Amino acid sequence: MTAEKITVTIPHELKERLVFVKDELKTSMSAIYKEALEGYLEKKELEKWERGFKLASQDEAYMELCNELGNDDGGLYEY
After folding, report:
1. Distances (CA, A) of 38 to 34, 62, 79
2. Residue 73 belongs to what H/E stretch?
3. Could you tell me if residue 35 is left (phi over 0), alpha (psi between -120 and 50 degrees) or otherwise beta?
4. Contact between residue 63 and residue 57 where contact means Cβ atoms under 8 Å apart
5. Using one digit for the tens of pLDDT, what is the confidence trace for 16-74?
6. What is the per-residue pLDDT for 16?
7. pLDDT digits (tens, 9 = 90+) for 9-30
8. DSSP 12-41
9. What is the CA radius of gyration of the chain?
10. Please, what sign has the CA dihedral across residues 59, 45, 1, 3?
11. Which helix (H) or strand (E) holds 9?
12. What is the pLDDT, as a whole number, of residue 76?
């Protein structure tokens, strides 16, 4: 994996809290930023899927198709 250096601006109080956690965990600021950004992106991706589901669930034709496809007797089918 190729890494890139970036610059971010954060409030001084937030940096102080980060430094405290960094020292407590004996890790690097980069590791904390990386973990935080990964968590943020995962959260946003989940929110996107949830919005899509909400929109889809409001579509009557889509929900009817889901119900039709979901009515499976559990048997095995050969294709």
Report:
1. 6, 32, 40
2. none
3. alpha
4. yes
5. 999 999 999 999 999 999 999 999 999 999 999 999 988 888 888 888 888 888 776 66
6. 97
7. 999 999 999 999 999 999 999 9
8. HHHHHHHHHHHHHHT--HHHHHHHHHHHHH
9. 23
10. positive
11. none
12. 67
Total-model pTM: 0.67
CA 22/CA 32 separation, integer angstroms: 7
The whole-angstrom separation of Cα 62 and Cα 67 is 9
In one-letter notation, the amino acid at residue 51 is R
Enter the tokens of residue 62.
């889509």
What token pair was written down for 12?
A: 């001084």
**Is the torsion defined by CA of 59, 61, 62, 63 positive or negative?**
positive
